[in-house]
Amino acid sequence: SGLYRLIGTNAGGCTDTSMAVAVSVNSLPLASLLNTGTDTLCIGSETILQASAGTGFTYSWLLDNIVVFGAQGQTFAASTPGEYRVIVTNAAGCSDTSSALTIENYPAVDVTVQAFGATEFCEGGSVLLSGNFNPGFTYQWLKDGIAVGGQSHEYLAQSTGDYRLAISSPDGCN
């Protein structure tokens, strides 16, 4: 930054000085990115990313180096796996891009239920329902959307209803 002038001298030794030109160098903003949650998400969940703050800053969010349409705030709710960056622009129009932050998804929890026996039976009868077994997972059987006993991968159904099995991985994903 400063005032600059050009002094010219011709072959005869005559000199002339130009008008002063003011040059200003504006500083770059520091673009940093913070994940307020976790880098690995259950499918369907999100984490909040936060960009560095500053007076007059504007923001553009990138997912896998593509601008995310409409994402212009200091924070961003990330739910899609990929590499996130933010472009921070200050009031002078100078920009900086953050380093990448990678968000991943835990593998999907696969739920399959099998009936061992007839699913239509007389009063006093039953059918064994069995879901896929995964060590470390937790299980909850539901009958007509209401939790019923049996927190294992198997359940003995003795009454009419719509039975479902909810499974949670050790990571807490359903």
Could you walk me through the main structural features you see in this protein, from its secondary elements to its overall organization?
- There is one protein chain.
- The chain has strands spanning 2-4, 7-9, 15-17, 21-23, 33-35, 40-41, 47-51, 58-63, 66-67, 75-78, 82-89, 95-97, 101-105, 113-116, 127-131, 138-143, 146-147, 154-157, 163-168.
- The protein contains no helices and 19 strands.
- Helices cover 0% and strands 44% of the residues.
- 11% of the residues are buried.
- The model has no long low-confidence stretch (mean pLDDT 91).
- The strands form six sheets. Strands 6, 8, 9, 11, 12 and 13 form a six-stranded mixed β-sheet that branches. A three-stranded antiparallel β-sheet has the order 5-7-10, with no helix packed on it. A three-stranded antiparallel β-sheet has the order 14-15-18, with no helix packed on it.
- It is rod-shaped and about 120 Å long.
- The chain starts with a strand and ends in a 6-residue tail after the last strand.
- With 174 residues, the chain is mostly beta strands.
